[in-house]
Amino acid sequence: MLSNILAAMLPLVVVFSLGYRAGWHKDFNGEQVSTLNRMVMLYAFPLNLFVGITNTPRAILAEQVPLAVSVFSLMCASFVMAYFMSRHVFRRDASTSTLQGLAIGAPSVPFIGSAMLPPLIGHSSATVAISAAVFAMVLVQTPLCFMLLAKNADAGSVTTPVSVHRQILSSLEEPIVWAPIAATMLVVMDLHLPKVLLDSLGLLGNAAAGVALFASGIVLFAQRVSITLPVVMTVLARNLIVPAVSWGVLVLVGMPHDTIRAAVLALSIPVGTVMVILAVRFRVDEREAASTLFLSAILSVLTMTLFIACTG
Length: 312
Hints:
Layout: H1 2-24, H2 30-54, H3 58-63, H4 65-89, H5 94-105, H6 109-121, H7 123-151, H8 164-172, H9 175-188, H10 195-205, H11 208-222, H12 229-252, H13 257-267, H14 274-282, H15 286-310
Organism: Novacetimonas hansenii ATCC 23769
Keywords: Cell membrane, Membrane, Transmembrane, Transmembrane helix, Transport
GO biological process, one term: transmembrane transport
């Protein structure tokens, strides 16, 4: 058990630390981090998903449908519930509630999951969980956030409101969305690409997790951190409450243990950087967003270890 935990958590800690050190040493600036993230989102990560799904036998992919549905549904549900709790129970403004909902409902599964999930749940389950998280984030959460944030932006903002329908259509054009869809269709039709081609694509795809974690470490250094009550509440919800409640829900609906373990571990991953990106773009609580990302990442070493041990 200890070896599994170390295998999962050590890459996260080491690469995060290297990125943090690179920021401290001024090896990279904010513009260069944006370039790194762009490379990951447009090339490395789509290729990583494409190769991972394509290498998954059709029978195994069919067995993973409950996992995909679980991760997708729970991420969407936690985002919506967190938004309404923040807006109507804690009476925060609409823009702040939107970002808080995204922080709680959108774990960094695409990036951190690529590094830590395969040793714990296997490559096929990890690929399916990551793809489901990407679909939830890109097709549901991000379009809704763009719409809500643009709607509540100041009149002088350069961003104009865009409908959810147009946001979804725009999202479908992104490689990170159509690449896993195309790979899934190939597997369903039982079509196989040459191994030498997949290995060639995987050469860049394998860099996705490391580069993304490295860039996140630089972002964590660059942002000023302030630990406030809203930050602590958001982190507790993201790191502990959502995975724990999800565990209970999946047990109640009778999901197999392997599916529950894979989903809970995926949903225990800390806050995703997309929340900070949107906060900066719309100038909404940027310091709170960065502080939430920082505290969630630090505490995840403990909380994720807890869920790894409990679901083993």
